[in-house]
Each structure stands twice: as C-alpha cells, then as structure tokens.
Amino acid sequence: MTSAAPLLARAYRPVASSATWRATAKVFLDLPVTWVAGLAVLVPAVVAVPTAIVFPVSMVCAVVAMVGNRLAARFDRYRLATFLDLDLANPYGTRSGGPWARFTGELRDGATWRSLAYRVVAIPQAALAGLVLSAAWCVPFAALSAVAWIWLLPGDQIDLGPLHLAGWAGVGASTLVGLVLLPMAPRLVAAVAHVERGLGRWLLGPRGDAALTERIEQVETSRARVVDAAEVERRRIERDLHDGAQQRLVALAMNLGMAKEKFTTDPDAARALVDEAHAESKRALVELRDLARGLHPAVLTDRGLGPALSAVAARSPVPVEVRVHLVDRPDATTEGIAYFVVCEALANVAKHSQATRASVTVSRLGGRLVIEVADDGIGGASFAGSGLVGLRDRVQAVDGWLQVLSPPGGPTTILAELPCAS
Length: 422
Hints:
This protein is an alpha+beta fold and about 425 residues long. Helix content is about 70%, strand content about 10%.
C-alpha cells in the first residue's frame, strides 16, 4: 500500500494543478469570447468586400474590422499568457505616414491576415475543445457523484443517460469508473492546451524578422542575467576559498611548522601538532570536495546524470525519488544545466516547501530533455524569488523552457525542457 501511494499521488496530482484548471477555464471562456470577437471582426470584413463599389461604406467596414482584429488579437495574446503561460510579442509592424499609408500598410502586414485566420479557426476550435473537456470532466464527476444520486432519487434503478445505476453494486462500479477516468481529464486538458499554444504561436506570434528580433532580445536578456549570475557565483567561490579551505591550509602550514620546531625538543607536543594538522587537512579536503561538487561533480562526468542526481537526492533532507529514463547520455552542456536545475529545485524544496517527499523525473521527448521536480509542500513558489529567476535564465540561455506550477497550498511542480543532442 505504501509503494502504491506515490503512484496514486502522481496520477491524481494534475487534477489539483492550477495549470489544469487555468487551461480548462480558458477553454470555457473561449466559447463566448471567440463568437463575440468573430462576429465583431469577420462581419465588417465580409461586408467590406461586396460594398467596395460604395467606397466610403466599404472603407468604414474595413477600418472597423482591422481595429477590431488588432484588439481581439491583443486580448487573445493576453489570455494565452494568463491561462497557458505563453508570452507572445506583438507581431504587428510599426506604422508611419498618413491614414491611407497606415491603412495600406495594415493590409500588407502578414500579421493582419494571420489574426483574421485565427478568428476563423478559433470558433470551431473553441466549440470542439469545449465539447471534449465537458465530457472529460462531466463523465468522471457524474460517476463519482453516484452515491449522491442513489440517496436523492427514489428507487434503486436510476437511469442518468449513459449512467445506469442498479443498487449499491451499481454505485460501487460507477465510483470505480469515475476514479479511473478522473486522472485522464488533465491529460486531455494538456493536449488541448498544447494545440492552443501551437495555434497561438503560428497565427498570433511574430514571424520572420519580428520573431528573430524577439528571440535576439530574449537571448540578450538571458545572457546578461547569466553573466551577472556567473559573476556572483565567482565571488562566492572566492569567498568560500578565502574563508574556508585557504584558512585551513594556512593553519595546517602553521601547525606543521611548529611541529617541525618541536620535533627534537618536545616530541609529544610535535605529535599533537601533527595530529591537529592531519585533522585540519581532512577538513580542508572536505570543503574543497564540497566546493568542487557544487561546480561540476566528478560523478556527473564519469557516470552521467542518473547517478549524479541519485547522489544529490541522497544528500537531501527531504526523501526524494529519482527516475531517470534515458537511453543515451545527452551532451555535457545539457547534463550540466539539468543537474543545476535539479540541485536548485531540491534546495528550494528543503528550504521553503515544508514537503515530506519529492520526486525527480528525467526523460527524453524527441530532441528535448524533460525534467520534472515535484513535491507535496505548501506551494506558493513563483519567479518573484531570485533563485527561480536564475533557473529560468540559465535554461532560456540554451533555448530551453521552464515553468513553475505551485498553487497556494501545494503541490509544487517545476517543469523544464532543454534541447538535447547525444
């Protein structure tokens, strides 16, 4: 039973995840929003075409459609950022000149037509996603509420559409079905969210030079932060060497010098000084070993990510389960960053989460290394803390991606993806 508990917790954890419910809320919010935005944008756009012979009327309809299209696209990007953690830059180019120049520039801008295409695609997509998620949530919750129906409705033969209950045996079977189906709902939510992110990147995000400019800005920002973090780390190493190992080595040299002077006149005192020097040398070696492990442990170079993470988990004050599913070793850079991400995440778990257990899962999905660090703590982690910002910057510096799912009350899950080349 004890061994099954982590599996059950892992299966049902996404049900309580804030990311699952934010994605679900977006789908159901999309149902009215896409229809209102579609009517506000597409109707004037359609009317503008046949009324081209009446130029003022066609012009007014086209301007209304374009302005509405921009506002709707901005709101779509805001919803993607709020509910799906997808930040998209404004894909529209700058406009200059008079009204006619700006109007024709809007017509020539590919972002205008991609946004219009999104208006068309979003209506059936929202309806289909709403239907899928309605079934995904309603069926298991209806099955789990069978015990309430059997109490509220008369008789022991209850027909609730696809759910037919025959006495308490039927209630037990229905509850079992609900328990099996409930963990599948978040997976459907994640699949729908993945489709919506892809659609948003394709039709609402920047393309061409704009996308390249945005990527350069992100890389420059991440690089600046990584350089700053590296400078802080260098100063920490200097301070640790000066205050720790260097002082111990100085004391070691002094003890050996005094022992050398007393070797002939006071052998017992010399022996005591040598013993103290020996103990001091061991302490200095421990400090140097810990410092080297924090930089790049030898076990990571010699044996790979799995043994290195197992060693980190063994030193953690919180029990940690490590699962590494890798056939081939990734490149050294990816291994180093993955090791750093897990070390920092587990350090945060030990310091702030009040967790009783944690888990680390590393797997490979196509050309990406996927890292998941989860705990059952109090939650509330965010990028407001400098530690998580440093993690994100280090991951983004190699074109990776990091997400923190930590609702108040927990649990907390840190997801990271890194480009991976064997």
